[in-house]
């Protein structure tokens, strides 16, 4: 594997990770603006569908374009999902710090190691 192949899969992982995070944040904002619970559920389902399509495109890109083995393809796809999940977790913690309530900070507790 030369450096150009390494850059291509790493670029795809970062791009898809950011896309997962943006999809999660955008669709949660749309769900927050919805007037009815059924519309909130529909926005959540649409976010799931959008992320599933991005996931399938990433796997196809890794498998057919980069010609990676199934194990490497799964590793890269899971890294992209982990980057997206990290972005969502960081945005939730930042939102929690900026929120006006100071009663208890439950959102930042998962960053502490061990059972607290």
Apparent shape: elongated
**Class by SSE composition:** mainly alpha
Q: Output the helix-strand order.
A: HHH
Total of helices? 3
Radius of gyration over all CA atoms, rounded = 17 Å
Termini separation (Å)? 44 Å
Strand content: under 5%
* Biggest sheet descriptor: none
List low-confidence stretches: none
Q: What is the averaged pLDDT score?
A: 87
**Strand runs, count:** 0
Report the helical percentage.
over 70%
Total number of domains = 1
Question: Which key terms come to mind for this protein?
Answer:
mainly alpha; single chain; 77% helix; elongated; 116 residues; 3 helices
What's the SSE blueprint?
Blueprint: H1 3-33, H2 37-65, H3 70-98
Helix pairs in contact: 1-2, 1-3, 2-3
Please characterize this protein's 3D structure.
Helix 2 (37-65) runs antiparallel to helix 3. The chain has helices at 3-33, 37-65, 70-98. The protein is mostly helical.
What's a concise summary of this model?
The chain is mostly helical and 116 residues long. Helix content is 77%, strand content 0%.
